[in-house]
Write a structure and sequence with these properties.
By secondary structure, this protein is of the alpha/beta class. It has helices spanning about 15-25, 35-50, 65-80, 100-130, 150-170, 190-200, 210-215, 225-235; strands at about 5-10, 30, 55, 85, 135-140, 175-185, 245-250. A 7-stranded parallel beta sheet has the order 3-2-1-4-5-6-7, with helices on both faces.
């Protein structure tokens, strides 16, 4: 994949960082986005230290202009854009009855609006280049089965599935593919937060809630960010050129089609 260019949002840590590092090792130049400028810069330095090409593009995906700006900077710096990974997302742990209007606005703004803006900015660039390109978005196993205490989060991930299918149909004439990846129980700060917040609902000790979920995973272990990044590498490659409109579970077998 040498000579190709990707933007990865939310790449300052966790799954996004693993994706950025993997795509760089595959030979792509990577525009590393994060809302935290220091985190974006740190991952950019990791890529460059390993011999790759990187450009930190800090910004908030809830700001449409910022998203279009990061895509423009990536294309201007590296000459083109080939892959958009809309990875940035947040989680909330609460019941449906407790959810406030502000909770809804915030989680939909990041997890849904941010994905739409990434799709728009990337598709516009791909079309201006003559067509072709890959849009890859973060969904979740919760996009296939809503999870208790994760109602609004599940709703946003179901929305990403719907957007993926609609955009895939609309952009197919331009030879742009649109897919999503659906992780399960990943060993990241996000799952540390979920585990901590579930303690108040389940009465569990630290780490116990996550362990309960992991026990339901047929492969029997916590997922690593690299497990997800390996699959995104496939979605970003020419090997996946005939796949579009799919939201594929990469979850150790938690949910099976």
């Amino acid at each position: 994949m040498s000579g190709r260019v990707a933007v990865v949002t939310g790449a300052g840590r966790g799954i996004g960082r693993a994706i950025a590092l993997r795509l760089a090792s595959d030979g792509l130049a990577v525009a590393v986005n994060d809302v935290n400028p220091e985190s974006a810069a740190a991952v950019g330095k990791e890529i460059e230290a390993a011999g790759g090409r990187a450009l930190p593009v800090p910004g908030d995906v809830t700001d449409r202009d910022a998203v279009f700006g990061m895509v423009a900077r990536a294309a201007e710096t590296f000459g083109r854009l080939d892959v958009m990974v809309a990875n940035a997302g947040i989680v909330q742990v609460n019941t449906v009855l407790e959810t406030t209007p502000e909770d809804l606005r915030r989680i939909f703004d990041v997890n849904v609006n941010g994905v739409v803006y990434c799709m728009q900015a990337a598709a516009e660039r791909f079309i201006s280049q003559g067509g072709g390109g890959k849009i890859i978005s973060a969904a979740s196993v919760a996009a296939h089965a809503g999870a208790a205490y994760l109602g609004p989060y599940s709703a946003t991930k179901f929305a990403v599935r719907g957007l993926t299918q609609a955009a895939a149909k609309e952009l197919a004439p331009h030879q742009i593919t649109v897919n999503a990846y659906c992780p399960g129980i990943v060993g990241t700060d996000m799952w540390d937060l979920i585990d901590d917040r579930l303690r108040g609902y389940l009465g569990t000790a630290k780490g116990e809630a996550r362990d309960r979920y992991v026990h339901a995973v047929p492969l029997g272990r916590v997922q690593t960010p690299e497990d997800v990044a390996n699959f995104v590498s496939y979605l970003a490659s020419s090997d996946s050129d005939y796949m579009t409109g799919q939201s594929i579970m990469i979850d150790g077998g938690m949910a099976m089609n």
